[in-house]
Amino acid sequence: MTQSNRAVLQAIEYHLPEARVTNDALAEQFPEWTPARIHEIVGVDERHVAASDECASDLAVAAATKLFASGRASPADIDYVIHCTQGPDYFLPTTACVIQNRLGLPKHCGAVDINLGCSGYVYGLGLAKGLIESEQANRVLFLTGDTYSKYLNPRDKSVRSVLADGAAATLLTSDASATGGRLAGPFVYGTDGRGASNLIVPAGGMRQAYDPNAPVQIDDSGNERTANNVYMNGAEIFAFTLREVPAVISRVLSAKGLSVDDVDLFVPHQANAFILAHLQRKLRIPPERFVIDMADCGNTGSSTIAIALRRAMARGAIRAGMRVMLVGFGVGYSWGATLLEWI
Amino acid sequence: MTLAEFFSEFETTASLPPGTVQGQERLDSISRWDSFAVVEFMSMADEKLGVQLEPAQIAACRQVSDLAVLCGFKP
Asked: Per the omega criterion (within 30 degrees of 0), is the bond before A154 cis?
């Protein structure tokens, strides 16, 4: 590999839709809750929610437009776009193709959708690194975006409290003079499809058609949902997190002969601040080196790491010479982790 | 952790008044024993007792004392 085809994360921008759902609004709807209790159990104070006519691709296009406006690249520079979403515009065509046209990306640009949630950012970076370092692409625009609010049942507080909408645009380049996060790797992945039913929208695909008359189910906690809505088994997701996240972090560290102390900053998927705080203590990582930054935007799926990373960059928490670990985990079950080296 | 301290931890998790849990309380009669409380309980067990619980084990419990047994306390 030559120096010039090493993939570097050069820039990130993100976009959150305008409307917000506050803890006050949720507490009003669910009188058994207080805003303070909601903050305590998920660490979120407000979530951004897309308008009824606003798709995940609209959010991703807005994030990309912001990135181009920053001057780090122009649409003409992009030769590959990866779009990670669990809310495509259509079954077909591929949403990335629609985005290519909307953003005015060149016709020689490759375009592909990937369907992943919480682990999607790490997977997308891994794909971008492969494209760049195998010299299939020089500048990859990696978009993440979701509108989970469209899958939520308004009477299901278990997911309304934490899931939210948002998008991010990440620019990856082979430019040898670029500054940013070099995708040093290793990229470590994991999958356990036995957990598929623990975080799922059962209806709407080919396995089970969307049913406007789907019956409402009420769970033991009083949450209501139909097969058209997202279901999350929080306890199972937590157990999965405890099993797999420490292990995947260890695998990355072992592959490089590093310890936790050698990593300057951990940026995990912003699943739920309560769960993240537990992980931080369990892994004995000082809180100042473990990013929890979701109070004003909730869990936006594959965009959370990008948003948290962008904010860490903006506040000067990441500097040249630092080693940053990204860890994605969740729906699938799917997980992945990697290291960036800041240059 | 003593059994009394365990009950105190449970009271905090289920938002119950201090000193009210004796062990025989039915979990399905505790209004705040919801999916979030279960996650909080799992977190407490992992962090303070070193016990990683599976949700199915917790779902099989009928009363608070069953949770105590699950966490290694003698019946």
From this structure: no
Residue A233, number of CB atoms within 10 A of its CB: 19
Among the options A55, A198, A269, A272, which is catalytic?
Answer: A269
On whether ipTM exceeds 0.90, the answer is: yes
> In chain A, what are the domains?
3-178 (3.40.47.10), 188-342 (3.40.47.10)
Q: Considering only CB atoms, which chain A residues are within 8 Å of B58?
A: 235
Catalytic residue among A55, A97, A118, A297: A118
Copy the structure tokens of residue A34: 């207080």
- CATH number for the domain formed by residue range(s) B3-70: 1.10.1200.10
Q: What is the pTM of this model?
A: 0.96
Q: What is the pLDDT along chain A (343 residues), one digit of tens a residue?
A: 555 569 999 999 999 999 999 999 999 999 888 999 999 999 999 999 999 999 999 999 999 999 999 999 999 999 999 999 999 999 999 999 999 999 999 999 999 999 999 999 999 999 999 999 999 999 999 999 999 999 999 999 999 999 999 999 999 999 888 899 999 999 999 999 999 999 999 999 999 999 999 999 999 888 999 999 999 999 999 999 999 999 999 999 999 999 999 999 999 999 999 999 999 999 999 999 999 999 999 999 999 999 999 999 999 999 999 999 999 999 999 999 999 999 9
Angle value at C-alpha A97, between A212 and A92, nearest 5 degrees: 30
The full DSSP string for A25-52 is HHHHHSTT--HHHHHHHH--SEEEE--T
- Residue in B31, B34, B42 nearest the CB of A239: B42
